[in-house]
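A note from the maintainers: we've had questions about how concatenated examples are separated. There is no special marker in the raw files; a new sequence line simply starts the next protein. For clarity in this README we add a label.
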Amino acid sequence: MARSGSAALVRRLAIPVLVAAVFSGLYVEAGVIAATLFPDAPDAAGHVAAAAATVLWFCAAWLAKRALEYVLVVVARARHVEFPKILSDVGGVVLFAAAIMALTAFVYDRPITGILATGGVVVAIIGFALQAMISDVFSGIALNVERPFRIGDWIEMESGEAGEVIEINWRATRLVTIDGEAITIPNGVLAGRRFINFYAPKRPVPCPQDHLPGLQRTP
């Protein structure tokens, strides 16, 4: 088991490591490459080094995201739950944003205060316009962390909707009723209301619709 886990980690990290190794060589030999390809351009070495460094920073974020995904998968398997992809997506956004900030400060030698200020204004405007969606996103993160239900569980809302959980994404949770009807519930609504999970703490046998209230097939 340990060997298979190590092999899976090596496979996940192999491509970003390989790309990073190639561009590390380009960064180290930037002067030679620039002199060979662009002999008449005095600033070519700096541009080649900056381009290589840019790829290296993004490779670092890519590598960190792959490692984060592996850790989340291992933790999810240990807890016998589904892999929380939404956490991986949020982590990826944070890691690549950090890489962009690092590039701005260390490679291109530009102050990041302007970027942070502009970004803060943009985030405030977007946040005001998309309050409901942002609430659904953070509720989705909370649901993935707390795990009150998982894919395959049967739940019933206090409003009466009941069905099997088939998807938990950024914005909403999708159910399929016993009659095959699809129900989409925003995560903000789901997180703020009472619901019953018929599969917690134990899964019923054989089928929930045979003996659970609220899940009887419509005649």
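[label: protein 2]
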Amino acid sequence: MNLPFIVLCLAAFVHVSSYLLLARRIEPFMYNFYVVAWWSYIAMVDAALALRRKHFLILNRGLPFLLVISAAFWCIFELINVRIQNWYYINIPPMRLIRFAGYLFAYGTVIPGIYVTKEAFSALLGSIRVRPLSRKFNPASCVGLGVLLLALLILFPSQLFFLAWVFLIPIIEGYNYARGRWCFTRDLEQGKAGNLVSSLLSGLACGLLWEAWNYWAISKWVYSVPFFESLKLFEMPIPGYFGFVFFSLETVLAVNFIRESPFVSRHRLWIAAMALAFAFTSFAAIDRYTVFSYTAYVDQLSFLPQKKREELKRGGIETSFAIDPRELNQEERQTLALLHLKGLGPANLEKLRKLGVTSVSELERMTEEELSAALGEKNRERVKVYLRAAQQYQPSR
């Protein structure tokens, strides 16, 4: 029995187990569902490819470096999100060390996930020949276009937020072309479209996986994108899936930029240290601007009598999502449902309780202005998320 087959079996077992642990609300594993689902998927695909190629693409000694680079790469978009405010995080662990580790391992899946999926599509599709591109390519203009798109994104975030998933493509494409390195344009000039098609498909496939696993997760992100809130597949507005397709191009270009750069190969340790520093600095910004709520521990549930909280802890229950609502009275169940509504969280729940709002139905009757003032939330798109969730809420029987 060879190593890739063993890894494939173990990864499949872990992947299936992650669904069971989430469904059964097993602490603390249920809060790590997204990370476990992604890394086990990466391991499964990498192992399946290794059965044929006789070597791993991701699960090798370069994995720690790739994980750090991937986290830093994604943090570019997290910092852009501070400006465009298109998503935010809910039910995040309150302990900073655990939270930062979660960021690192979650964002560390981005490059490995897209890259290994792209390689899987390449293996399935083989080479794809097209008519060679004959039009002269100007790499300097291409880079300039990318810089212009970034500037427009920063200046007009509400209107041009979608440029977040486009601007890096011409920057890296133009730079790689000018340096004589691999890029999609160079492939197309030779009549090769396999890498382009595989990359586009990997973006769509990974986008669907990202959104499906995020939809089921407890610690997750929520979108507050203007204009498209009524058209969703999982948490993502349907037009947003085009963003994943473009994002995959940026990611594959970044992978090849790193892989073919002599500077990177000579200074891997220094670059990893800089990337890690950048990532952790970004994590602090995420905490301040993008995290909306933290996991609620039993001790924080002041709407429950002290005796009941002690009974829950003696039963091994540490957090609110492990509580069986059937063990609570009607008033307590209503408040717990409000706490969990789109990850409202304990801090925001207490703000509402001070105003006498203790149930989803009472929140539903609030106006946008009232809820914004109650939560101290200036981002009206986030406020709309909770009003819509309250309107769509169906109490469990």
